[in-house]
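ARCHIVE CARD
Drawer: 12
Card no.: 0347
Subject: one protein chain, sequence and derived structure
Cross-reference: see card 0346
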Amino acid sequence: MDIRRLKRIGGLAQPHPSPLPPREMRLAPIMVFALLLAPCVMLAATSSSPLDLSEDAVRTKETGIGSLVADAVRASASADAALIPAAAFKKASIAAGEISGKAICSALVFPDDTVIVLSLQGSQLRGALEKSVSIYPQKSLGFLQVSGVELVFDPRQRNARLVSVKVAGKPLKDDATYRIATTNSLASGALGYWRIWTKEQIVQKSNATLAKAVESYLAASKELDYRKAVRISVRG
């Protein structure tokens, strides 16, 4: 009971009459709890093409839903780039037209995973991208969906598969420092990425979750087009 809603009558504290009928009073906490459990509900943007996601696809190549989530995470953190592992996704299919945050969340394994920003040297970012494509064409949970990054790789090479990498349209510089947004789990070194960076390189811990990042991104976007795969290209 909220003590601010008590009034004194004859020296005794009595509850202030509630403006809600008894049934609504009982349902109100349930309604609030339901909203907390459904963080992605906003209908906010349209897509000019269907957004399909299979586990095979997200573990071997760029996907529309993967790119959308990566874009949302990068925007939420104002980062130079974003990296989202295939392990963060599950099978989903979204028809062309209006897109809701709830629909995108259906493709996320943990929509409540928080957004984290790492400060990485260009050489570390290169190492992460090399790891991402290291066993292609085999499927990998560590394959990265990206935003702010364009890469070309050659699977015929055993090592150093990357042919070129651009960040924000400019060639990657190994000695430069980049703000990289990602999931809390990946920032903590999951999927073997602890070999690339350490937790000490975390420079920003956000209260935003993947779900909230997606919701905000859709709210700010009028129309989305992920028909062309231009971020991850295979040579040979």
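Annotation on reverse: The CA atoms of residues 150 and 231 lie 4 Å apart. The radius of gyration is 22 Å.
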